[in-house]
Write a structure and sequence with these properties.
Length: about 130
């Protein structure tokens, strides 16, 4: 039986080479906050993903109780902070499009992020 060929290149190197060959923008390949597990807000605070995607009941509770709320428009490409006074209006727009168990179609997924000092961020990622 022939021996399995080994390569000195890993999968990430191959993908990077293909993207470079296609002339793609390096920023296009970056991961969304939900995928990478980290988010840095406009004030420079680092948030780390704690759990998610979240159940709709927990999202509703966090809309009212989280310290911060950010919507990642375009699969996280544009981060928009939602002030406390606008959260209920944002909830009305996203609640029917949340990814829930058994739903065939969805537009949003919600995640719980935490800061080092224990604050809670509700991050809602919007998909195209």
């Amino acid at each position: 039986m022939p021996k399995k060929r080994t390569s000195d290149r890993n999968f990430a190197d191959v993908v990077a080479a293909v993207e470079a060959a296609e002339g793609s923008d390096p920023a296009e390949g970056r991961l969304s906050p939900a995928s990478s597990g980290e988010l840095v807000d406009e004030r420079g605070c680092l948030w780390t993903k704690s759990r998610g995607p979240l159940d709709v009941r927990l999202v509703k509770r966090l809309v009212r109780g989280a310290d911060e709320m950010i919507v990642g428009e375009g699969a996280g490409e544009v981060l928009r902070s939602v002030p406390e006074e606008e959260r209920e209006a944002a909830w009305a727009l996203i609640k029917d499009g949340l990814d829930t168990a058994g739903s065939g179609t969805w537009t949003y997924r919600a995640y719980d992020f935490r800061s080092e000092d224990g604050r809670i961020l509700l991050y809602v990622e919007e998909f195209y």
